[in-house]
Amino acid sequence: ANLEQLMESVEFEEEEEFLECFRCDLGFWDACYTTETNCSHGELCYTGRGKAADTLDIKTLGCVKAEECSVETTVELFSNKTIFVMTKHCCDTPFCNTSHKLPITTLLYLIMAVLTSWHLTEASTGSQ
């Protein structure tokens, strides 16, 4: 298995310029119809977050040129000229712009922490 992994990493270095990312043209909150895409040479994966009219939480995923990373851009949405400000947060490993991994594990840790502390409090008050 180690040799295989070695071969894969060598292959990966050769094709390094074409990063694979998740792509979602437009999502609201975390609901995003996501596909996989190959970026062009020199592009990074990004997660874009923006707010329209201060309430609508908009999200996009995809590939972007490095100079557009962490830059606030205004985007015009629909024909009624709803304008929102979006910032693209970039990363440079395959599929690193996944939308769900981190929040779910964070949520699980929080739930575990709450349950554990609740259980400990229950146990200490119950034994008195």
Blueprint (SSEs and pairs):
Blueprint: H1 2-14, E1 20-28, E2 35-38, E3 43-52, E4 56-65, E5 72-77, E6 82-91, H2 101-126
Antiparallel strand pairs: 1-2, 1-4, 3-4, 3-6, 5-6
In short:
With 128 residues, the chain is of the alpha+beta class.
Could you please describe the fold and organization of this structure?
With 128 residues, this protein is of the alpha+beta class. It has two domains: 19-97, CD59 (Ribbon); 98-128. Helix content is 30%, strand content 38%. It has two helices and six strands; from the N terminus they run αββββββα. It has a six-stranded antiparallel beta sheet with strand order 2-1-4-3-6-5, with no helix packed on it. A hairpin with a 6-residue loop joins β1 (20-28) and β2. It is flat and about 60 Å long.
Oligomer: single chain
Q: Kindly identify the CATH topology of the largest domain.
A: CD59
Low-confidence segments, given as residue ranges, are none
Number of folding domains? 2
Helix count equals 2
Query: What percentage of amino acids are in beta strands?
Result: 35-45%
**Category by helix and strand content:** alpha+beta
Family: Belongs to the SPACA4/bouncer family.
Protein name: UPAR/Ly6 domain-containing protein
Pfam families: UPAR_LY6
Keywords: Cell membrane, Disulfide bond, Glycoprotein, GPI-anchor, Lipoprotein, Membrane, Signal
Could you list some keywords that capture this structure?
six-stranded antiparallel beta sheet; 128 residues; CD59; 30% helix; alpha+beta
